[in-house]
Amino acid sequence: MEFTPVRPTRASSEVISQIREAIFDGRYQPGDRLPTEREMARQFGISRVTVRDALRALEAAGLIEVRVGGQGGPYVSKPDVANLTETLGTHVQLRGTTFMELAEARLGLELMAAGLAAERVTDEELAQLRTLVEGPRLTERESAGELLDFHHLVVAAAHNSALLDMWTACRTLIQEPFDVLHALQPAMAEASNEVHRRFVRALEQRDAELAVRVMREHLSDFADRAEQAFEESRRRKWHAGR
Description:
- This protein is mainly α.
- It is built from 10 helices and 2 strands; from the N terminus they run αααββααααααα.
- The longest helix has about 35 residues, at about 210-240.
- The radius of gyration is 24 Å and the shape is elongated.
- The model has no long low-confidence stretch (mean pLDDT about 85).
């Protein structure tokens, strides 16, 4: 495909706009190589320096990657949830988003996923979930990680890529405070495992309403425990500093 010449006064932004449009409407697929800098400069009617500036902006946005070597050049990026995680992480830090706000967002995502999973979960996915809830007792740190692995499998069983990408990004942001929370409340892991077993039974029955209800109770209890644990931690630090 050919790009169209751009106005010199807005060259870089128009180059970015045309390349974005070509990617989003499918003219270039993930992994496809874009024209060379020289060829794009010819098509756009601008200098290679301006093309290079536009490509840098597109690379920073995660839309393309510029490779070096014999097969180097600009390529359309393949979907990578790490880009979403990094962008969301920056946004969360700038806004001062709290752990509890992330927990509420997670609640909304997982309730939707729970209902869909009850309708769409495969036998293989059910077997994986059973393995997690029926496996041997783990160490405190392993247990905290495996609890989130369970929820990741639940969201994956909803077979909705948008939900899975958003949840994966959210998981990365809550992982560290989640580990801290489980260190503060070791009994939480066993309580969570019991609820997870109930949830798996709801999936086995293909009962979406029950699955959503169990997940709501579970995550609401988690939020309450988290708030209590962090409040106790703050009080301890305050008394220690007196």
